[in-house]
Specification:
Number of strands: 4
Largest sheet: 4 strands, mixed
CATH architecture: 2-Layer Sandwich
Number of helices: 2
Order of helices and strands: EHEHEE
Pfam family, one: TusA
Domain UPF0033: 12-36
CATH topology: Translation Initiation Factor IF3
Distance between the termini: 19 Å
Oligomer: single chain
Strand content: 25-35%
Number of domains: 1
Family: Belongs to the sulfur carrier protein TusA family.
Protein name: Sulfurtransferase TusA family protein
CATH class: Alpha Beta
Organism: Phycicoccus avicenniae
Length: 84
């Protein structure tokens, strides 16, 4: 399943969950996405600040991180590169 050409990327809201739940949910969601697709993960667990980037690196996904008010938005580009 790819989000290319289908509007907004899938949004996975893992706020209120604790490690390792945000990474596990993101990994499961990315399995259903094609290379080049984007997934947006929202998380407020401090451990996700290191876990999500480490997971993305190990899996070869691109990642941008944006701090919001009390939580973080992780935009994952499946298969590498950097999200637009």
């Amino acid at each position: 399943m790819s989000d290319a050409g289908h509007g907004a990327p899938p949004l996975l809201d893992a706020r209120g969950t604790r490690c390792p739940v945000p990474v596990i949910r993101a990994a499961r969601a990315c399995r259903d996405l094609d290379d080049g697709a984007t997934l947006v993960l929202l998380a407020d667990d401090e451990a996700a600040r290191s876990d999500v980037p480490a997971w993305a690196r190990m899996r070869g996904h691109g990642l941008t991180v944006e701090d919001e008010d009390g939580w973080t938005r992780y935009t994952v580009l499946v298969g590498g590169g950097s999200p637009d």
